[in-house]
Amino acid sequence: MMNLEAKLTEHFTLKEMVASQNHPDIYNVPAPAQIENLRRVCQWLEDLRRLYNERYGGPGADLPINVSSGYRSYKLNNKVGGARDSNHLMGCAADLVCRDCAQAVQYAALLMKISVDRGAWDEIIIEKKFNHFWLHFAVRPQTLPNRCKVTVIEKR
Ligand SMILES: [Zn+2]
What we know:
alpha+beta; Muramoyl-pentapeptide Carboxypeptidase, domain 2
């Protein structure tokens, strides 16, 4: 039995990295290798959280980074219309909720700064649907290509 309250890093739990707001009924249980991939993503998100608060949060700020989607089983990925080869399937991606376009760009810029220390990422995608923005961030294990892709997608 998975311990969903387990912390992958200081501020990110396994629970939020496997949750599905719209489809809580769908089986979505990662394997150990996928959990390790989620942990790698969360290490970047910890850096992002710290840098974002330092840069944009004001004195004593402790603003969270909100994840709307992390790991997805094939079934969940199909249900939400994810790409066939989505990084979410391996636990290598997280979607970060953004207040607006500016915040998505700020996250993207900070993730690129973090890569100076952590190495290559695979995807940074600023996505917009109706008036909602989110940033898809993916980093893979070193055994796979990390392509440093940057894309903007408007969904309809
Ligand atoms: Zn995504």
